[in-house]
Amino acid sequence: MNGIDKCLKIREHFLKYPLQTYKLVYFKLWSIVLDLTQTRKNINYLEWQAVLLKIVSLKAHFKEDLFDKLLKIFSNFNLSKLQPTILI
């Protein structure tokens, strides 16, 4: 069982037993990232770049700020335009 398999198992558990309060929002964001990492097979460089940008934009919505290094790398992109809609 690899890391992704373990994450899928954890997600399955929290889908059965949902989290409460803001933790549910973070779980939904984490689940989106998990789904995005699953789509990485058989895609070209530009598609992978778009997936990576979506993941970085999701990270920007967590309480912790993006690391300075990531901000420098993605400074040309407006990450707020990629804000996800989370349905609870």
N-to-C CA distance: 30 Å
Helix fraction bin: 55-70%
Number of domains: 1
Order of helices and strands: HHHH
Please tell me what the overall shape is.
flat
Largest sheet: none
Strand content: under 5%
Rounded mean pLDDT score? 77
> Poorly predicted ranges (pLDDT <50, ≥5 residues)?
none
> Rounded to an integer, what's the Rg over CA atoms?
14 Å
Q: Based on DSSP secondary structure assignment, what is the total number of beta strands?
A: 0
Which keywords apply here?
88 residues, mainly alpha, 59% helix, 0% strand
Short structural description:
This protein has helices spanning 3-16, 22-38, 45-59, 68-73. With 88 residues, the protein is mainly alpha-helical.
Describe, in plain words, how this protein is organized in 3D.
The protein is mostly helical. It has one domain (3-82). It contains four helices and no strands. The chain has helices at 3-16, 22-38, 45-59, 68-73. It is flat.
Write the layout of secondary structure elements.
Layout: H1 3-16, H2 22-38, H3 45-59, H4 68-73
